[in-house]
Each structure stands twice: as structure tokens, then as C-alpha cells.
């Protein structure tokens, strides 16, 4: 489980560096699909990851809008403020938590029952999916996207 | 590990159904980013998944081009022919395989050392990333993409 979060954090850092070479106008430009923009996507990924970690722990959620975070600096600061709690939760994950029940109410009012294991994998897939969207938008502005490869990042400890 | 493969197969099936409502011209249309088209992406996902499963087992690879598979029917048939071997490998996965070493030679000739656990997660991330690209292209042709949600698919056995 941890390895895929580390993959996501590593890829996310690569995208932040990539953003440093792109004009702010391009980062904020409205685009088709997903949440509709490059920097907004990074904000959304960070927001959703933290919100799930908070929800699993029965803590209050994050509900601010992207309008308050329209620069790389602000999105990075937001991430830095969330990271310790996210990391502590993820790095302390163990198989005993896998089947804990999480009851959620969907936007249309139905009660949904998920396991913590499902929620964790939902978070992982959520980020990778949105990063896939960034890769298309990158090509649309004639930029090479960040590599999505998981191998080659040295994520398996102890074999290199 | 298995749950994320099952997620990918479930989402992939949803995309095949989605493709059934789209004209063949749209499915084959050249698009920006990724491998450059909707049906080509599904072909590529299926090709790469099977190729990795084969490589891990030291078996021969799949090297055919998309040019021979330019219809939903052909891509689905290819998937059906690969599925039993992929499924057998994934469903028999166990933690004891996690740190097995896989030596690969990159396109530029370097030898790379990965663990089987890394390769499996690489395969998972690879598909989710490409599906994210489909979601942008779907919006570009004014279609609602398939949901990328992992929760709500009943993937955790025994709690529903």
C-alpha cells in the first residue's frame, strides 16, 4: 500500500517541478475534462487525499475552494501543511486496518459502506487518474509530460 | 494487490461498453497525448499488462501492432485470449513474490533491477494513467467519461 502512495508523492513532486517551467497563465488556463486545469488538478489531488485521511479518522474535512490557491507556491504550501498527517497515517497502515468499515453518505443521500482498504486504494487511483489527465493537457501545449513509470524510481527499499 | 487489478478490469469493461456508443471513427481518431487514440489506448493497456505478466514468467512477449486490431471486437477478442493467463498470475499473487528480482534492459541499453512487487504496481498505475487520458478525450467529444471511482464497485469481498 505504502509504495503506491510514495509513487504518487514522487510523481506529484515531478509535476510541481514541471509546473515551474510553465507560465502561470497556462497553469490556470481552463481546460477540457477533469477539474478543468493543471494547477487546479494538483490542488484537487492534495485536497482529496487529505480529506479522505481526515474522514477515515472521523476528523473534520477540508472545504476550501481553489480560488484561494491560484499559485504554485500556495498549492505547495497547502501540501506541506497536510503532508505530516497524511504521511503518518499512510506509513502506519497495516493489514489489520484493511477490513474496517467506513460508512459514508453520497452526494445524493445514499448510505454507502466501504472498507478502509477500498478507501485507501480509491485515493491512490484517484491521483493516478488525474495525473493521466495532466499528461494529455501537457501534450496539448506541446510539453513533454512527467513520466508515469513506477519502476525506475527506487521505490522498493533494499534492492539498490 | 488483487483488488487494484480487479478495479482496472472493471473500469476497462465499463470503457468497452462506453465505446459501444461511440462511432468507430471517433474511437480511431488521432488524438493528442498518450498513444494517440481511444481504442488504441485500450489495446495498449491490454498489450502491456499481458507483456509484463509474460516477462515476469520469463515467457515470450506480445509484439503486434494496433494496426491489426482496429475494432472493438478485435481488441475484446485479444483481451479474452490474454485474460486467463493474466488472471491466474494475479489471483495467485502472494507476499512471498514481492521482493523477487526482475532484471530488465531498457530501450537505451541500461540494465535495470526491479522487484516483482514494483512491476505489479507499475502495471496497475500504467492502466489507471492511460484511463485518465481517455477521460479527457471523452469530454473533448462531449461525452461523459466512465467513473474512475474505486469505492462503490463492491470490490471488497464479504462486506456487502
TrEMBL record, chains A, B:
<feature type="binding site">
    <location>
        <position position="44"/>
    </location>
    <ligand>
        <name>a divalent metal cation</name>
    </ligand>
</feature>
<keyword id="KW-0479">Metal-binding</keyword>
<dbReference type="InterPro" id="IPR007837">
    <property type="entry name" value="DinB"/>
</dbReference>
<dbReference type="Pfam" id="PF05163">
    <property type="entry name" value="DinB"/>
</dbReference>
<protein>
    <submittedName>
        <fullName>DinB family protein</fullName>
    </submittedName>
</protein>
<feature type="binding site">
    <location>
        <position position="126"/>
    </location>
    <ligand>
        <name>a divalent metal cation</name>
    </ligand>
</feature>
<dbReference type="GO" id="GO:0046872">
    <property type="term" value="F:metal ion binding"/>
</dbReference>
<comment type="similarity">
    <text>Belongs to the DinB family.</text>
</comment>
<dbReference type="InterPro" id="IPR034660">
    <property type="entry name" value="DinB/YfiT-like"/>
</dbReference>
<feature type="binding site">
    <location>
        <position position="130"/>
    </location>
    <ligand>
        <name>a divalent metal cation</name>
    </ligand>
</feature>
Amino acid at each position: 500500500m505504502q509504495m503506491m502512495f510514495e509513487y504518487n508523492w514522487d510523481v506529484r513532486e515531478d509535476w510541481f517541478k514541471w509546473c515551474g517551467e510553465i507560465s502561470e497563465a497556462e497553469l490556470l488556463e481552463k481546460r477540457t475534462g477533469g477539474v478543468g486545469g493543471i494547477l487546479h488538478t494538483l490542488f484537487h489531488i492534495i485536497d482529496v487525499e487529505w480529506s479522505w485521511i481526515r474522514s477515515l479518522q472521523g476528523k473534520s474535512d477540508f472545504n476550501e475552494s481553489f480560488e484561494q490557491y491560484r499559485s504554485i507556491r500556495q498549492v505547495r504550501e497547502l501540501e506541506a501543511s497536510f503532508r505530516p498527517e497524511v504521511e503518518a497515517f499512510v506509513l502506519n497502515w497495516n493489514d489489520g486496518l484493511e477490513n474496517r468499515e467506513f460508512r459514508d453518505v453520497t452526494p445524493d443521500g445514499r448510505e454507502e459502506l466501504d472498507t478502509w482498504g477500498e478507501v485507501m486504494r480509491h485515493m491512490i487511483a484517484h491521483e493516478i487518474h488525474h495525473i493521466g489527465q495532466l499528461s494529455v493537457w501537457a501534450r496539448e501545449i506541446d510539453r513533454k509530460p512527467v513520466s508515469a513509470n513506477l519502476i525506475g524510481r527506487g521505490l522498493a527499499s533494499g534492492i539498490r
